[in-house]
TrEMBL record:
SUPFAM superfamilies: Composite domain of metallo-dependent hydrolases, Metallo-dependent hydrolases. This is Amidohydrolase family. GO terms for molecular function: hydrolase activity, acting on carbon-nitrogen (but not peptide) bonds. It comes from Aspergillus sclerotialis. Signal peptide: none annotated. Keywords: Hydrolase. InterPro entries: Amidohydro-rel (IPR006680), Metal-dep_hydrolase_composite (IPR011059), Metal_Hydrolase (IPR032466), Metallo-dep_Hydrolase (IPR051781). The keyword Hydrolase applies. It comes from the Eukaryota. Residues 55-406 form the Amidohydrolase-related domain.
Amino acid sequence: MPRYLITNTRLFNGDTVISDSTNILIENGRIAQISETQPPTLPPETITIDGSGKTLIPGLIDAHVHAFREELFLKRAIKYGVTTVLDMHNEPTWFRYLKNIADERDDVADIRSACHAATVKDGWPATLVRVTAKDDSIEELIGKWPDLTRPEAAEEYVTTTIDSGASYIKLFLESGEGFDMPFPVRPLPTPTAEVQKAVVQAAHKYDKITVAHAVDLKSTKQALAVGVDGLSHSCAESIDQECIDAFKRNNAFVISTLTVHASGSGEEQESREWFSRNLPDDEKEKLSSCLKFTHPPILMKNACETIRKLKDAGIDIVCGTDSSLPFPGLLSGVSLHHELWLCVNRCGLTPLEALRSATGITSRRMQIPDRGIIKEGMPADIVLVNGDPTRNIEALDEIVGVWRNGEKFG
Ligand SMILES: [Zn+2]
């Protein structure tokens, strides 16, 4: 494995800018040394990279994706410096297939998953999948999803899900009310509050955090009332003080997903097109189109206001997109750059705060202590960028190199 020395670079460690002139030695896949002075002697064959005028940041984390079984998803992610993706509902067999690839190879992003999220028969996301899927084989899949109707079943669901590889537990609380889709019933069925509470308690018993899907205000408050640790979407309806207080009471975090809200409501066409400008034609078409399946009050501009208010209240913001291969308006990797840009330009985060939300804060809140941080001894999942993304988020556009486990990609 090659040894790298990156010299005289600005270092953002996932929390703060350590120094404008740091030397970082990468050895055996790890950050071996961080110092202001260059190591006096270096073993031969060390590859030296001049980092002046550049910034080294931790590999970015997209905290909300659906990678399904697409290796391409992980390949696209790492091209944009996204070295870890957090899957928020997937087939355990598909997740394990991808995890094996990620464990064996360093030219793809790493992946963690919630595996099957907690839901009920004919609830979300089965109804969404039925409306959008093109073939009947989908029923076989949906038939395997949890149908949690009794609180007594929660613990078995949690242990089975952890055994199938889940790193955290996800709950679906979606009424479907904000969606322009031909659902057979409204509101859609969801697990009852008693079941939700039992799932959260069981997850905590086994040291796993819980995140809940909710996009409207009522469901967001409901999720917080049963004690979830985080929301997997920013509420896309105007939030009130009661909701902010509930976030504070739980010390809950929020995963932004502004890019999916923008695609859902059809907002932000201009910025989607800007982020797709250099892509090959098929990718450009996917990123510059949109879902347009929600209606007011479910709007991206409300989701931005939520992030702004929660940030002002001191709530942790975690960056995530909800990228998946089928969803238009989103593309793995580049959409996280778009997400960070929206956090800065639409929600008032500073570039430094936005970067924290895709690195150090995610590491802490999603319980992945070996990711999103640069310090000695950590796996070398790092990104070298031209310029200073801690002051100008658009600098992420110029990635010089991406390392995963000390192997340089690109
Ligand atoms: Zn999702």
